[in-house]
UniProtKB/TrEMBL annotation:
GO terms for molecular function: oxidoreductase activity, acting on a sulfur group of donors, disulfide as acceptor. This is Gamma-interferon-inducible lysosomal thiol reductase. Transmembrane segments: none annotated. Its main location: secreted. One of its GO terms (cellular component) is extracellular region. Keywords: Glycoprotein, Secreted, Signal.
Length: 147
């Protein structure tokens, strides 16, 4: 249903030279998010890629608080989901492009959260991903979903 709404917005507001910004907030361990990515976004993205500027945000229903400059997160599906959200956010922050990011998120969403950093992605620098995870608090004073 959401995909139909995205297509409708693209058809109504976009032209061949315009793109529509679409932000998708999802959760690393949410069954509905996994189904949406795997069954709707991933198979249909090639048809939409020229018309949308996709912003994948692994945050969903998480909540955060800033206590004395340190962010604390609570995720709907527990600490493992927060861990998965952080890993995905760090990987997505490497700006590999919408097509590669959709492929990566589709792949990672089908894995156990303990394997988030072990999934291979073309041009994804494992070193920079680990640096991002290790120093995320020092890199930015923003929530980790917006590195």
């Amino acid at each position: 249903m959401l995909l139909k709404a995205i297509i409708a917005v693209v058809l109504v507001t976009g032209t061949l030279s315009d793109t529509v910004k679409v932000s998708i907030y999802y959760e690393a361990l949410c069954g509905d998010s996994i189904r949406f990515i795997a069954q709707q976004l991933h198979p249909n993205f090639p048809k939409l890629a020229d018309y949308i500027d996709l912003d994948l945000v692994p945050y969903g229903k998480a909540v955060h608080s800033n206590i004395h400059g340190t962010y604390y997160f609570s995720c709907q599906h527990g600490p493992a989901e927060c861990k998965g959200n952080v890993y995905q956010s760090c990987a997505l922050s490497q700006n590999q492009g919408d097509r590669k990011n959709v492929e990566f998120v589709n792949c990672i969403m089908r894995r156990n959260p303990d394997h988030f950093v072990n999934v291979e992605k073309e041009d994804l620098s494992e070193t920079s991903l680990f640096i991002c995870l290790l120093f995320r608090g020092e890199q930015s004073n923003q929530p980790v979903t917006r590195l």
